[in-house]
Amino acid sequence: MDNWEDMKIVAEQWSKQGIEFVQQIPSPQLYAAIALLLLATIWLFSIRLFRRTKSNTVLLSGLSGSGKTMLFYRLRDGSSHQGAVTSMEPNEGTFVLHYENIKKGKVKPVHLVDVPGHSRLRSKLEEYLPRAAAIVFVVDALEFLPNIRAVSEYLYDILTNASVVKNKTPVLLCCNKTDKITAHTKEFIRKQMEKEIEKLRCSRSAVSTADITNDFTLGIEGEVFNFSHCHNKVTVAEASGLTGEIDQVQDFIREHVKP
Amino acid sequence: MLEQLLIFTRGGLILWTCKEIGNALKGSPIDTLIRSCLLEERSGAVSFNYDAPGAAYTLKWTFHNDLGLVFVAVYQRILHLLYVDDLLSMVKQSFSEVYDPKRMAYNDFDETFRQLRMEAEARAEELRKTKQVGKPVTGSVKKQGQVLKAGLEGGNKRVGEGGTKKDDGDGIKGKVSNLTNGHSNENHKMGDDSQEADRANGKENTSSNVAVDISKLQKLRSKGVRGRGGVRKADSIGNKSSKVAAAEPAKKATKKNRVWDDAAPKQSKLDFTDSVDDNGNNDHVEVVAADQGESMMDKEEVFSSDSESDDDDDDEPGSDEKPAEAKKKGWFSSVFQSITGKANLEKTDLGPALKALKERLMTKNVAEEIAEKLCESVEASLEGKKLSSFTRISSTVQAAMEDALVRILTPRRSIDILRDVHASKEQRKPYVVVFVGVNGVGKSTNLAKVAYWLQQHKVSVMMAACDTFRSGAVEQLRTHARRLQIPIFEKGYEKDPAVVAKEAIQEATRNGSDVVLVDTAGRMQDNEPLMRALSKLINLNQPDLVLFVGEALVGNDAVDQLSKFNQKLSDLSTSGNPRLIDGILLTKFDTIDDKVGAALSMVYISGSPVMFVGCGQSYTDLKKLNVKAIVKTLLK
After folding, report:
1. Of B16, B40, B414, B419, which to mutate for an interface test with A (greatest number of A Cβ within 10 Å)?
2. Fewest C-beta atoms under 10 Å: which of A58, A199, B339, B539?
3. CA-nearest residue of chain B to A151?
4. Are B12 and A88 an interchain contact pair (Cβ–Cβ within 8 Å)?
5. How far is B474 from B480, CA to CA, in rounded Å?
6. Which residues of A are less than 8 Å from B11 in CB distance?
7. Model confidence pTM above 0.90
8. Region entry Disordered: which residue ranges (chain B) (predicted)?
């Protein structure tokens, strides 16, 4: 009890000294100091607010050989140069899309990432998914049916990824190589993908408690899977990286990376 | 002549191709090279062979790790072009001077390339002529001589330029021959390791023809049974097998019950298995419903990641202390360099770090030649790279190795068996899995575990007892089948396994089973008649999945087992598309603490993923391979 009172007395003395010290400071300095402090806190808050706004990262993903690297360079430079081979590393760049160079005014640059589609490099995708504002999933419309299982599994993995579900990242299913005559239409591809994902949904959710890698399941129980069941928006578009018809992709990117 | 030479970035964009040589390449050799060689961590190899209908190419490559560029040369395999390595290195040098990350088209490089190519071809021609003028050589020695020439070319280049500057009245040929003689001295002075080694090889081989033949033989033998040099070895195996085959029927004809002197010949049968009725249950065998709990395949693997950073910190000073003596100075300088950020990584810098890594991998039971190849591949990918500041060489090497290991262990294709089973179900065929492996690895035990797991996922399973050789194999499977309540197809002993499997699949189609698990007898990889029988089984039945069962305790033999199994399956297959091993089942994983290297060796040598891991002897002890945990354990 004595200790308590002693400590109380010491605390009172210290607080008195502090108040005296503060009162000793001439008032303009004091006000200036307080104003600075307030400004600093406001500044920090505003930075945090800005950070919460959407990032400008757009991911280009898809199976190996679907045309992502060509699309990347077409979006960046307007031409696909001399062609591409299987990528071993991701292609990244922050730039204004090529067709917007002509536009006047300030346009926000887009951080475009082309992730290799080879199955051995699948782990690279996991690094970029949390920061993605939008995903362009490139599908080879020419060689669609032979690869349909691999394509649907990849898309299923993306759609059930934790970050994608939490952020409700919009996905564009881009059917590439549509300049060739034997390429399938986007409606056909969409229907086939929905069917395959339906099958995947059944087999993967038949597993008990912990599934292989998927954190979430897709769709509504009891109904045939449809892309509209996803919480994030999934749209379909056609494109051709070789000839340069990529308007739908550009619109999609511009729509989700606000200038 | 050269078919094509490409320069592309690691991100996949082609920067430059040779436009003079207009031939389009048949097939897609570059993509195949990237997928099956560079991404498989075999970039330390010398060349890559590609076969397409109508063309047989050989590809050679080199990296420029600092700028992230890859240079690939493609030529016909029948032409043994010698100047390719030299040309690639020269192209690399001159292109890296021109390279600019912003530029995408390098049309002016055509001119430079044409000059370089002509120079290289001319040099090769000259060297060949001067060598032919020299002493007469036998065929094999000529090859060694050509290798020697290729080694000398690098030295030629520099002095050749100096030579053209001099103006003498001598003819060019005379000058060249002088220069070639002068080079042989210069090479020793320059002290280039590879050239000296080539020269030394050339000297040893020209000493006596007998020595050449033996060394050639040894080289071919070390390459393995593959290749024409291996014909001799195959012949010897063939002889052995024919002898064995001749002995076997003779043995079978005369085998009778042994009669010991003191015991009276018994007539009672030796089969002590209990008599069972076909439909009822046996009293002794209990049915194992699903109450053993869920298989560990479905449980999430929990591994602690918090201790990771502590281990790394503890390890770093530890690994530095090992090569203590003369390396104290080296350690201090490396720390200094790490802060300043040294210019470029050289082979000599990477050497000790890689050696330490290789030793560490080998202590974790990775096969020796796999560790060697991996280290070469990591070296090829790091050489010439700029060391970023505040990182030590050992940590860069470790990061690169970790990346490479994750890449190797990540499966190339989907290992979702349930999905495949459902796909087969739709087509109304049973999904056939064949378990192969050497003796005693645990095929029958793990077959039962897989059956249990499949049953838990509401898949109807049937077992096929195609191990008709080992006594007790059919009874073992019968017991498992009774415990799990699944049908079993058996025909007893001494029957042809291929026919038994065929009938089993027909039975499964009839009664609507989803999966057929086929058990085969264990066999050594060198045993020719047994491998032929296995190949016949696989060819006849065309299973959906060929699962190689290997134990985690195996050491360097894993490489031999898997490569021989794959090779026999491909050699002895009748159709054009041979069925190779599709997946690996790793057993006895609970007996190794942290010596998990067998998984890496097996996956590297065969390219097929590990589908299951057996970690105990009860039905629930089956789980999936956790790639990150294995990589962490390997590099600890």
Report:
1. B419
2. B339
3. B414
4. yes
5. 10
6. 69, 87-91, 114
7. no
8. 129-328
